[in-house]
Amino acid sequence: MEWKNELTRLLGITYPLIQAPMLGITTPAMVAAISNSGGLGSLPIGGLSPEKVIALIREVKSLTANPFAVNMFTYEPELAPDRSTFDGMQALIHELYQAAGFTPAAVKYEDLQVHSWREQLPVLIAAGIPSVSFTFGMPDADGFALMKAHRMHIMGTATSVAEAVALKAAGADIIVAQGIEAGGHRGSFLPGALSQTGTMALVPQIADRVHMPVIAAGGIMDARGIAAARMLGAAGVQMGSAFLRCHESLATPAQKAVLGQITDTDTQLTRAISGRWARGVRNKLITELEAAGEAFCSYPFQDMLTQPARKVAREADNPQWINIWAGQAAGKAQAWSAADIFAELVRETALLFPNNKFA
Ligand SMILES: Cc1cc2nc3c(=O)[nH]c(=O)nc-3n(C[C@H](O)[C@H](O)[C@H](O)COP(=O)(O)O)c2cc1C
Questions:
Q1: C-alpha–C-alpha distance, residues 224 and 76, integer Å
Q2: Is residue 67 in a domain?
Q3: 17 lines ligand 1 (CB under 6 A)
Q4: Is 156 inside a domain boundary?
Q5: Residues in CB range of 126: below 8 A, 6 or more apart
Q6: Which of 149, 114, 68, 99 is nearest to 292 (CA)?
Q7: Most CB contacts within 10 A, which of 67, 91, 146, 327?
Q8: For a substitution probing ligand 1, which of 203, 241, 245 has the most ligand atoms within 8 Å of its CB?
Q9: Residue 109: inside a domain, yes or no?
Q10: 2 pLDDT more than 90
């Protein structure tokens, strides 16, 4: 087994190790640290305005000359929720936060605004971004044609074999196979029951079906996970939770402290925070919103409703009332610099294979 393979050649990187895009956690400094180390940093821009995207890309480019990926949320938003569902959920959120001593700003129904991948893609093209990853679905045929015309490497997220097949048929070059262990939102996009397939089961089934580079994501925290993913047929890995506590992470001090103490059973899937299934550390925000038994708004409207409330809790550095997206193995994350975490992954993976070229 070697580090160099089809994926490293395609992406122009040294190691097939990808830092997962993590909206709300990943900074330009984190992206640049990984790309400067020979991996692929990923800049998350899901839902951000084109102006913000331009500024973030500029910042990453000021810190690295190496390739990095930009990550979009490629879903078609459903219509805004009906007024009474929206008002009822907002009242419930305010009641819970006020009981906890917070006064969140109100969200106005009239102000709900969604920035689509359609506004973002031209910005990425203008910036000459070589690799685009996406989750929550995929661009339409025009979007794929645009990405192909600009020779972008197209990386789509799949949580099932059927989603991987759909991504391949649409023109994706690389499949990110996201297992149920993964922190953050499920990338699931085909109708039907939520895929709950684990990384170990998902990766070989996708690899055998699509015959194209597959990146394993979910629960990979160290060299053992990297080696296992490669054995299962993945060309590379995408790791998010491993970087949650790094110096470059936007996680607050209390959030990092919680992450330093959690065990394998402390995360769960929930729709309470954003309206989409996502894995995070179980806290009061999740348990109390779920216990209230009210229907959540769909994504991204539930997310918009909880956002000002999470912001005040975040400012107070209160980990009970914020979202702490994290994977099932996040308790193994180290509080080092991103470059040191990356260097240790490379070092210990090479140690596992002393007699071959995995060095
Ligand atoms: C805090 C956090 C935020 C995330 N945000 C995104 C995102 O913006 N876009 C995306 O494609 N995936 C996102 N993910 C999912 C990751 O891409 C990846 O699937 C996951 O981190 C892999 O599992 P692991 O956390 O066990 O390493 C996020 C994950 C976490 C932990």
A1: 37
A2: yes
A3: no
A4: yes
A5: none
A6: 99
A7: 327
A8: 241
A9: no
A10: no
Task: Give me the domain span that covers residue 225.
Answer: 6-77+114-251+330-352
309 to each of 102, 277, 288, 294, how far by Cα in Å?
A: 8, 19, 14, 17
227: helix, coil or strand?
Answer: helix
Determine if ligand 1 sits within 6 Å of the CB of residue 323.
no
pLDDT category, 79, cuts 50, 70, 90? confident
Whether 31 is in the pocket of ligand 1, judged by its Cβ within 6 Å, is no
**How many structural domains comprise the chain?**
1
Percent helix / strand / coil, the chain, rounded to 5: 40, 15, 45
**What string of DSSP letters covers 53-64?**
HHHHHHHHHHH-
Beta-sheet strands, E only, within the chain: 17-19, 41-44, 68-73, 131-135, 153-158, 174-178, 184-185, 214-217, 236-239, 267-270, 278-281
Residues 6 or more apart whose Cβ sits within 8 Å of residue 41: 19, 30, 31, 32, 33, 34, 35, 60, 64, 68, 69
Span from the CA of 113 to the centroid of ligand 1 (angstroms)? 23
CB distance 290 to 270 below 8 Å: yes
Show Cβ contacts of residue 149 under 8 Å, excluding neighbours closer than 6 positions: none
Burial class (CB in 10 A: 0-12, 13-18, 19+), 331: buried
Ligand 1 pocket, residue 238 CB under 6 Å? yes
269 belongs to a structural domain: no
* CATH code of 131's domain: 3.20.20.70
What are the structure tokens assigned to 220, written together?
Answer: 């990979």
Q: Where are the alpha helices (DSSP H) in 109-198?
A: 117-126, 141-149, 161-170
**Model confidence pLDDT, tens digit, residues 84-143:** 999 999 999 999 999 999 999 999 999 888 899 999 999 999 999 999 999 999 999 999
